[in-house]
Fold each of these.
Amino acid sequence: MINSKLPDVGVTIFTVMSRLAAETQAINLGQGFPDFNADPELLAQVDAAMRAGHNQYAPMPGVPALRQAISAKTEALYGASYDPETEITVTSGATQALMTAILAVAGPGDEVVVLEPVYDSYVPAIKLAGARPVGVSLLPPTPGEPTYRPDWTAVRQAITLRTRALLINFPHNPTGAILEDADLDELERIVADTGVLLISDEVYEHIVFDGRQHASIARRPALAARSLLISSFGKTFHTTGWKIGYCCAPAVLSAEFRKIHQFMVFAVSTPMQHGLAAFLGDPRHYLDLPAFYQAKRDRLAQGLRQTRFRTLPCPGTYFLLADYSAISDAPESEFARWLTTEHGVAVIPIAAFHGDPDAPGSNRQLVRFCFAKQDSTLDAALEKLQAV
């Protein structure tokens, strides 16, 4: 028999709901992936790279042209200068980057603080490193503050002498919360007082709405100096299946990151890296993304106003939360299954992002809709939801 390293981990909620959607032929607004293709120009760039012979191993830290493009983009957006030679590493998606970062900074006896609701890969990665995850709940929505937000006092109280890192994720999946300048101020004080490292998952950095700017940790030199910043081209360029991400970090942290990276995957897809490097030459491809997704957010939110769901504000990501308390008092997982099987629309329960999904405090009668879909998909889903 195998002595499982993750005895409490089963199939993820995304797999469960997507499988149920397929079995019932429901419209899948659960799992976070677009149902439309990438820009034809990007596909042409990858095709050209393949035909040009870029089909063998890439350099371990990534194709130089892509690392240089990432460096230029990050400096232009946030004013942070990362050396493409020593401080930027291209990874097999953000999930691999997160696992590598955690393994690089934490080990047996260490602690890593995470914010709940927490994306499902964080806690298993921390446990595989031999460390202990310490959950701190985000402040839940209230009538006066209708979005989730960090409780920095509770975060500070959770940090001990064993804490090696604080793992943050903004814009936040699953709640859509974003950071403000005041939050970066609090983070600076926490880092200065405790010496903790930051792992900042910023894969939705280009999906922030209503004219707001993404509050990247790269905007603050004091934070960037102690942080591993992780992002992904999958969310930005509608290519989640390519699994191309990256990590920006000071040279001393990047050196430890690369030690592990080289033995996890060594390098990632060469022609896709060349294609992405060329595509990044035009910043409009990511600067126009907020308007593109804001139109979809507003389409879904407006349609849901014709239903018995009550939407919460969505300042970032391509996920919209909705309160179903006017429809049912069932726990979130039960309601999500019922909505999928009886009304043909798959969603994700927010309770699934908590350490104990069945706890009363984890169930706030909220579900997550993904609006990274064609307008026709959203309209078909809304027609079904109006009948609930």
Amino acid sequence: MWAETVAVTGAGSGIGRAVLLAAAARGARVAALDVDLSAASAAADEALTAGASGAVAVECDVSSEASVAAAFDVIGAPGAVFANAGIEVNAPLHEFPADAWERVVAVNLVGVFLTCREALRRLVEAGRGGSVVCTSSPAAFVGHAGGGNSAYAASKGGVSAFVRSAALDYAPHGIRVNAVVPGATDTAMLRVGGADLGRIREAAAAQIPLGRLGRPDEVAAAVLWLLSGESSYVTGSHLVCDGGLMAKSANDF
């Protein structure tokens, strides 16, 4: 499906791992980038078993300019990039520690910038097109009823604005830039802060139109479409994969 490497940040777990394995199952060469090298290595090994034509694991802290540059020195100019690494910290805004806020923004927003910059720089220099997908969130568009989501929402709102701007800048180079917007997906991040998964599933059944949490492989299918040539006329767009949640009014009248 791809002649070039598919690079995924946050590939050691969750949606990133699902995308890596989905690309591998289509015979792509893959690069698993993660701050946890052991998790990246395990994902790369699994990718080879799944059918990848090649796989490399690279330790990468997306909030570090030097780390991201070093990672792309290893993998070169990938034809497809999923800028996905992210974290979530929740707290009431008036109690939010400044260092925690800065960390969320550093990983979720600055990390996307650094990842895309290194990939785009190499693609432009190589004189060929490509596809970049960034992970946004419903939090970029609507508030979360649970609250305490200000840092995460701000970072993902920045990602969505970034995608629109970058798409315009790089369309002349044949490089597409889009975002996926996953809703509540059954990953470790959903349980941040020790959240009760049983209660989360009950809430999902009651509040999400499709009546359940999403699966990482379902989001991966959306990402793979955006990364592939099947979406060749799509850029600057957001593909919402949330079970219908954002389409639903909070009012029942």
